[in-house]
Amino acid sequence: MSTHRLQDALDALKSTRVRMTPQRHAILEFLFESMIHPTADDIYKALEGRFPNMSVATVYNNLRVFKEAGIVKELTYGDSSSRFDSITSDHYHVICSDCGKIVDFHYPGLDEVETLAEHVTGFRVHNHRMEIYGYCPSCQKKLEH
Ligand SMILES: [Zn+2]
Ligand SMILES: [Zn+2]
User: Where is Fe cation annotated to bind (predicted)?
Assistant: First the structure.
């Protein structure tokens, strides 16, 4: 399934003017296979052995290119630790308060919350983000010991 999505993303990139390089291919492949919502630093660490000339800044710049092409989503947390998501359709995230792991969670979009927010505030709402916090199964095990 993830290789199918990777192929779709590669096709989508081909239709833009983004040039495919071995580095870009490797970054995309990691993003689509890992499903961990990695930071630029996570990707850098995973690939630095294969691309000794690559820097974290290169990884980040490539992620920006993918984001502009609409094939990845950036989850910002107010500092430099943006996480990148290869699933660009709407979904929610469950986040571990201990290890920071982010897991996808599919639930019907809460459109009525957006409608209500528009009514109450007069904003023109275009998006919302909901995050659920707790302890992941492996951290629960650690806490029991
Ligand atoms: Zn955890
Ligand atoms: Zn996600």
Answer: 128
Return the CA Rg of the chain. Answer: 17
Distance from the alpha carbon of residue 41 to the mean position of ligand 2, in angstroms:
18
Domains of the chain: total: 2
The reply to whether 99 sits in an annotated binding site is yes
Both tokens of 10, joined, read: 């590669």
Cα 110 to middle of ligand 1, angstroms: 26
Query: What is the model's pTM?
Result: 0.79
What's the CA-to-centroid distance between 112 and ligand 2, angstroms?
21
What are the E-state strand segments in the chain?
73-75, 83-85, 92-96, 102-105, 131-134
| Per-residue pLDDT of the chain in tens (145 residues, 90 and over written 9) | 567 888 888 888 888 888 889 999 999 999 998 888 999 999 999 999 999 999 999 999 999 999 999 899 999 887 768 999 998 888 899 999 999 889 999 888 788 999 999 999 999 998 888 899 999 999 999 988 7
Domain that includes residue 122, residue range: 92-144
Is 119 annotated for ligand binding?
Answer: no
